[in-house]
Amino acid sequence: MSAPMSDLFSLLFAILVFPGGLFALCFGLVLKGLDRRLAARLQRRVGPPLLQPLFDLVKLARKRTLVPDIACKPLFLAAPMAGCVSMALAAALIPIPGVYDPDPLLGDLLVVLYLLAVPAVALMIAGSASGSSYGAIGFSREMALMLAYEGPLLMVLATVAVKTGLAQGGFVTFSLSEIVRYQQEHGAYLADPWMWPAVLAFLAFFPANLGIAPFDIPEAESEVLEGPLLEYSGPPLGLFKVMSALKAVVVLSLGVVLFFPTAPDGAAGLLVHLLKLAVLSLAGVTVLRTAIGRMRIDQAVLFYLKWPEALAIAGLAAVLALA
User: Which UniProt keywords are present, listed alphabetically (predicted)?
Assistant: First the structure.
């Protein structure tokens, strides 16, 4: 096999099988199952089986796809596919410490930043293309929330990139592999008190990006009946579930890579990485959504423009001041 063909095969394998694609989907469904089981136990319920998210996907795959007469059919069907593709690609861009380094041809931290915005845009397109008034409300809420939490995320990524770049004698680095390598050699940023504002800002960011309570405002069942997803059924709705599972792995993996990627090599490193994702998911997602009620959209926007934004700016300022 020629070198270009070998490189192409490696890229496709990373996107479709490991660490993106099939692997990220399977583990994302496991995280969803663990989340539902723990939430049920915290609420003194039995809860669904661990594999219930997989059962839901199989059921949806066997259902008919219904498209509203007033919907824009091409956009209606393309939105969930775009979200799934973006998250499969993003999963292949994030290193697994001691196990996997992404090919530089796939992209870097800036590409991950753009890809993380695609699922929210896909939900907005879905809401507007469906022709439903509830979808339009979900669209407006998703857009407002996205504009609020993207600022802190950008500042957090800039803080990590600048700190790593300055430590290596430059100014900024957007290579996730270099960020991981530096922390493995010099210690995780989680242990650096000057990075704690950025850590807290990221911890505040990912619940909204994952669409969980108290920030599940665009899809609030009791208010807008799933909002952008109200008119979806069958395989397209299943693709949105796939997108959600992939996004959970991507966002949690990004947090691990940015702040505490230290791990052994080989299979032990993969196991440590997955355990970190599980702990972060159960502690930062399940406990949060079972303990706190849903915010109003104005409360959520004000919260992100106030506290996470201030923390992220303080973290970046601290890194620049110590340079």
Answer: Membrane, Transmembrane, Transmembrane helix
